[in-house]
TrEMBL record:
Enzyme nomenclature, EC number: 2.7.1.49, 2.7.4.7
Matches recorded under NCBIfam families: HMP-P_kinase (TIGR00097)
Annotated protein name in UniProt: Hydroxymethylpyrimidine/phosphomethylpyrimidine kinase
Reaction it catalyzes: 4-amino-5-hydroxymethyl-2-methylpyrimidine + ATP = 4-amino-2-methyl-5-(phosphooxymethyl)pyrimidine + ADP + H(+); 4-amino-2-methyl-5-(phosphooxymethyl)pyrimidine + ATP = 4-amino-2-methyl-5-(diphosphooxymethyl)pyrimidine + ADP
Amino acid sequence: MKTALTIAGSDSSGGAGIQADIKTMTVNGVYAMSALTALTAQNTTGVKSIMEVTPVFLGDQLDCVFTDIFPDAVKIGMVSSCELIEMIAEKLIEYQAKNIVVDPVMVATSGAKLISDDAIETLKKRLLPLAAVLTPNIPEAEELTGMKITAAEDMVAAAERISTGFGCAVLLKGGHQINDANDLLYENGKSRWFLGKRIANTNTHGTGCTLSSAIAANLAKGYDLENAVGRAKDYISGALGAMLDLGHGSGPMNHAFDVCGDFGREER
Ligand SMILES: Nc1ncnc2c1ncn2[C@@H]1O[C@H](COP(=O)(O)OP(=O)(O)OP(=O)(O)O)[C@@H](O)[C@H]1O
Ligand SMILES: Cc1ncc(COP(=O)(O)O)c(N)n1
C-alpha cells in the first residue's frame, strides 16, 4: 500500500488540519501518517487557542515516521513558527523526502491567523524551495508575491512569479473568487486551468487542507501532477457538493461522500 505523511496542526472540530488530511488520504486509498505541529482548540466558528509542539518533539515524530514507514508523499499544512519550519526543512532534506506538497496555511476561514509574520519569511526561504507543488489560495498568493489578484490574468501572473521565485509548481486555488471556483496549475512554464462550478455551500472549513492532501495521496499513488490535481479537484468538488451541514459556523465537508465510488478503491 502507498503511504503519505501529513505535517500539520490538529483541529479539535475535525474539519481542517490533521483530521481532514487523514480522512482525505484514507478515502483516497493511501495509508496516512501524521506529525503534529500544533494543537488547536477550534470549531466551525473560530480558533480559541493554539498550543505548538516543541521543535525537538516535531523532529522526533519525523524521525519515527521516516526511519520506519517511508512516506511516498508528504503534505505540509499549518506551521506557525520559524523554529518548526527549520526543523521540518532539516528533516525533509536529511531523509530526501519526495512528492512534497506545501499548503502555505496563513489564515483560517474563520479569520484566525495561523502563522507568525517572521515565519512567513522562513517558509519562503526554507520550505517552499523543497516543494514539488505549492497550493496557495488567493490571499496567500498575494502575500507571497505582493501582487493584488482580482482577475484570471492576475492569477496566471502570480502563479508564474511564485513558480519562478521558488522553483516549484504552483496550484493557485480560486475558492476565493466570486463567480467560480477555477484553480490554476502552473508547472514548468505552462499553465492549465482546472475549472470548477461554484457550489452554493458556505461549509468550506478545511477545503484547502483537503485539496492538498488529496493531491499528496494521488502523487503517492504515482499519478503525475496534472492527474493528481485533476483527481483532487473532483474529490473536493464531491466532498463539498455532498452538502454536509454541521456546527454553527463554516462547517466541514463530507469526506465519506464517495465511499461507494472510485477515489481509492482500485489501489486498496
Ligand atoms: N464554493 C465552492 N464551490 C466549489 N469549489 C470550491 C468552493 N470553495 C472552494 N472551492 C474549491 O476548494 C479548493 C480550495 O480552495 P480555497 O481557495 O477555498 O482554499 P483555501 O482558502 O486554502 O481553503 P480553506 O477554506 O481551507 O482555507 C479549490 O479547489 C477551490 O476551487
Ligand atoms: C489546524 C488547522 N490547519 C489549517 C486550517 C485552515 O483551514 P481553514 O482555512 O479551512 O480554516 C485550520 N483552520 N486549522
